[in-house]
């Protein structure tokens, strides 16, 4: 044992994968605008409604009833049963509780998936533009990202090019990350698209990570309850994992509650991965999640209607501005629009924030394919959106 | 695009590090006993008290006030300030909020630390017997574990052998995981022990992960408020990260709230790592955490007194049983005792559960050095513990 104390040494390096992580560009902007009185925050993926009372009441009651102890890691059996039924009602298939794992956020679920499947040196394909956080998580695990941009339609909207996806799969490709409905583009895969991607994953031995957190947010559709899901199209042991969340449908972004649908054989792996990360979501919050599934359907429909109205307003107002190119988003709750003459979307979002107090997310945050664009969340009241449009007009319609 | 559907293929393999994970032996036992009417669960690390009212009320109010949106990833500034003051009161040093990160459980915090520092192929030293979950997290990240057993004193208690620790550090050693007060042994490092370990980490360029979640649970001590902490002994940029938690001190095991004290230079890394995992703890739960720090001191003292009484009862009753060897644990809230003639502690814990309804954790769950032992959590009422002692006597005092 040393008898004389050793002086402090220079800091030890972090893992390069972590030292090189870039902070989210949306978060940086969020911090810039935090506390500004006239801020209209349309940059993050959440609406302006608080969680419905029936959900809060259930969590409050569970807390008062003493549900403050450790609980089931993958979720209350009762909650998993309820989720099983929810999928049955929406998609006509019940995945069975053995395929369900509750996680502490959709992002947390993606972390667990990547820990299960992505080896250091593997790569993950991302259909871009896409919400960047899943890609950052892959980098944390030593993965590399291959961008496959969605193809552009003549009207500025997005479409899937399965051949490009196929061509991008290399020997180190381990997974495809696909969000449908997509944040930020609103692109929503058709059933034929989904079948083609599933076939590709089967044929090439690649995992499909299917982000369906915006599944309820579809518009102009003959099937209003949900976007097409991979669930009715797969066998339980197909290499497909669905990420879903309570956040968007039930205004529960702050609750950090989500769920995965995975092959039943992965249950033990998720048991362990959850145990060794958050050890499961708080029991009394799970009571809120159960109320969302059982008693939250009216709110879910109201939420989607509210977004449909927000979308119409934004399409009419923003879509008519001189410098804006905006296609109708089929799903999710964002307008992802191109601004004529803008090549640095982060600087432009900062300028808009500075001059108008409207918070928008820069397109570059969603990958190189998003540069020149801005993302606006329309999950807000008509009044708020109209005010934002008035302010934006000074810059975008000049 | 394929025109004919591809048939399902055999399941893809998981990462070997994850496929090989063993489920926690405590969890397996917990599942065995779940729902048994006469169960006395002394196997997991939580007491029998629900979270104090003042904490539940604060969370309930925050929920009612609409704190259901995204929030600061590393914790509310107000909460970090309160934690800063808490450390000042306990240890005489305020680490500053830039060194504090709120996490979604102590286990979640350990995951984030390992993601930041442990490269695949590195190894982590663990002072054993020790709570196994941190070691499992290291394995998930491709790390290997080097056991350094605590040395045994003549009375059966545990002590630190710094030379053994020094000798165990190899070229691939990246971190030492040290829990003090220790789960399961109750071993509590002296200030001299801590200085020696810190010096060793400085000299050898190794991270110290200092698990201080049982910091309030010390007995027979002239300094009753807290076990010795590394915090007053380090420079901010020393390679030392403290893990602490709301779980034990404030009966909040089910809330999944904890915090890290880390070098200020690691703040951006933890910003990102939290963003890309749970994206932060729920805002309204943070209100509960704030109440714990501000208004929870009476409960914390009551909790420690309750454990002190539980410890006395267990030492007297269990310690006197014919087949039991039990040293006085200096800290934490466990009796970690050897049973004469037992070489398979898991089978023996199952037998005890089967025959008496008392749930104990098998020593093997805490590493090879724990085999032949059982762990009993004494954070319970006198009545409950006395009943458990009566039942255990039939096996352990025969």
From TrEMBL, chains A, B:
Its EC number is 2.6.1.-. Residues 40-392 form the Aminotransferase class I/classII large domain. Coiled coil: none annotated. PROSITE patterns: AA_TRANSFER_CLASS_1. InterPro entries: Aminotransferase_I/II_large (IPR004839), AspAT/PAT-like (IPR050596), NHTrfase_class1_PyrdxlP-BS (IPR004838), PyrdxlP-dep_Trfase (IPR015424), PyrdxlP-dep_Trfase_major (IPR015421), PyrdxlP-dep_Trfase_small (IPR015422). It is an enzyme of class 2 (transferase). SUPFAM superfamilies: PLP-dependent transferases (SSF53383). It holds the Pfam family Aminotran_1_2. Its cofactor is pyridoxal 5'-phosphate. It catalyses: L-aspartate + 2-oxoglutarate = oxaloacetate + L-glutamate. Keywords: Aminotransferase, Pyridoxal phosphate, Transferase. Gene3D superfamilies: Aspartate Aminotransferase, domain 1, Type I PLP-dependent aspartate aminotransferase-like (Major domain). The keyword Transferase applies. CDD domains: AAT_like. Belongs to the class-I pyridoxal-phosphate-dependent aminotransferase family. This is Aminotransferase. The lineage of its organism: Bacteria, Pseudomonadati, Pseudomonadota, Alphaproteobacteria, Rhodospirillales.
């Amino acid at each position: 044992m040393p008898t004389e104390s050793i002086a402090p040494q220079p800091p030890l390096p972090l893992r390069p994968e972590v030292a090189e992580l870039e902070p989210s560009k949306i978060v940086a902007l969020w911090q810039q605008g935090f506390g500004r009185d006239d801020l209209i925050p349309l940059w993050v993926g959440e609406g302006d409604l608080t969680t419905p009372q029936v959900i809060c009441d259930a969590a409050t009651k569970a807390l008062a009833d003493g549900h403050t102890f450790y609980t089931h890691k993958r979720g209350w059996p009762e909650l998993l049963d309820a989720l099983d039924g929810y999928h049955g009602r929406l998609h006509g298939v019940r995945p069975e509780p053995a395929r369900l794992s509750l996680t502490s956020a959709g992002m947390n679920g993606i972390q667990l998936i990547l820990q299960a499947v992505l080896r250091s040196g593997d790569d993950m394909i991302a259909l871009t533009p896409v919400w960047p956080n899943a890609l950052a998580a892959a980098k944390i695990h030593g993965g590399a990202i291959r961008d496959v941009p969605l193809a552009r339609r003549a009207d500025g909207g997005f479409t899937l090019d399965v051949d490009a996806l196929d061509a991008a799969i290399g020997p180190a490709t381990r997974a495809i990350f696909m969000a449908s409905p997509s944040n930020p583009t609103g692109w929503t895969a058709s059933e034929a698209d989904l079948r083609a991607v599933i076939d590709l994953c089967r044929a090439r031995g690649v995992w499909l990570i299917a982000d369906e957190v915006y599944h309820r947010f579809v518009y102009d559709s003959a099937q209003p309850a949900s976007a097409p899901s991979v669930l009715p199209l797969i066998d339980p042991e197909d290499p497909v994992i669905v990420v879903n969340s309570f956040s968007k449908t039930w205004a529960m972004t702050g609750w950090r509650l989500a769920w995965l649908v995975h092959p039943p054989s992965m249950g033990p792996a998720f048991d362990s991965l959850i145990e060794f990360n958050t050890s499961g979501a708080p029991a009394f919050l799970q009571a809120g999640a159960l109320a969302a599934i059982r008693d939250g359907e009216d709110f879910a429909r109201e939420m989607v209607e509210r977004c449909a109205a927000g979308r119409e307003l934004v399409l009419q107002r923003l879509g008519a501005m001189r410098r804006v190119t905006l296609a109708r988003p089929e799903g999710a709750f964002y307008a992802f629009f191109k601004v004529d003459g803008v090549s640095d979307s982060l600087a432009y979002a900062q300028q808009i924030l500075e001059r108008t107090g409207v918070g928008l997310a820069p397109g570059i945050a969603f990958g190189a394919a998003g540069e020149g664009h801005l993302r606006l969340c329309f999950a807000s009241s008509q009044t708020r959106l109209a005010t934002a449009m008035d302010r934006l007009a000074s810059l975008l319609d000049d």
